[in-house]
Amino acid sequence: MVCGGFTCSKNALCSLNVVYMLVGLLLIGVAAWGKGYGLVSSIHIIGGVIAVGVFLLLIAVVGLIGAMHHHQVMLFFYMVILFIVFLFQFGVSCSCLAMNRGQQETLLNSTWGMMENKTKEDLETQLNCCGLFNTTDTQHAKRQNAFLFLCGCVLCGTKMLDHATEALKILGGVGLFFSFTEILGVWLAVRYRNQKDPRANPSAFL
């Protein structure tokens, strides 16, 4: 049977959803590992990563069940949700690739302002820095009042910006790659949904 046939479309869609399931489980595992080893203390960051992993896992399960049973309704909702995720992820990935240094500073400032004090302190400890772009905005200064520490302290914002461009390029590139796999999943779902199962009743309506 040629690759455009029913069986090939089914196997390709199942394989793609298995990959999505593995990625979702990996995100959940990494978040749990980071929390367990104390790498990230913010429950919001951990919860966000786990939520993304669970969401991806649920989409993959719906797509996998729909592909295995050729379920029209599940395949329809699967391709609609996946297309919405594609639009969102494609836009975010393009924004990451197009972001300049000034926009990176604005993003860091807004993100730093929303962080909990414990998360800021963890970042300052791990990066060996203080504050973002102002040495008075540091948890070490508030907790320790260490003047000598502040004199020789490197700003966290400076360290972050040194690697932000490269990190955003990697993030944008990976996001674009996964967004194209998502549009591939939508195309496979549409194609597979409109194909007739050769083992089914020839007079049955799809």
The value of Rg in angstroms is 23 Å
Total beta-strand segments: 0
The DSSP helix count reads: 8
Q: Which structural class should the secondary elements be placed in? A: mainly alpha
Order of helices and strands: HHHHHHHH
Low-confidence stretches: 135-150
β-strand amount:
under 5%
Largest sheet descriptor? none
Mean pLDDT: 76
How many angstroms does the end-to-end distance come to? 21 Å
Q: How many domains in all?
A: 1
> Which bin fits the share of residues in helices?
over 70%
Q: How does the overall form come out from the CA principal axes?
A: elongated
Describe the fold and architecture.
There is one protein chain. The chain has one domain. Helix 1 (6-36) packs antiparallel against helix 2, helix 2 (43-69) packs across helix 3 (72-98) and helix 4 packs across helix 8 (156-193). Helix content is 77%, strand content 0%. It has helices at 6-36, 43-69, 72-98, 101-114, 117-127, 139-144, 147-151, 156-193. The longest helix has 38 residues, at 156-193. It is mainly alpha-helical and 206 residues long. Belongs to the tetraspanin (TM4SF) family. One of its GO terms (cellular component) is membrane. Its main location: membrane. The chain crosses the membrane at residues 12-33, 45-68, 75-100, 170-190. It comes from Oreochromis aureus.
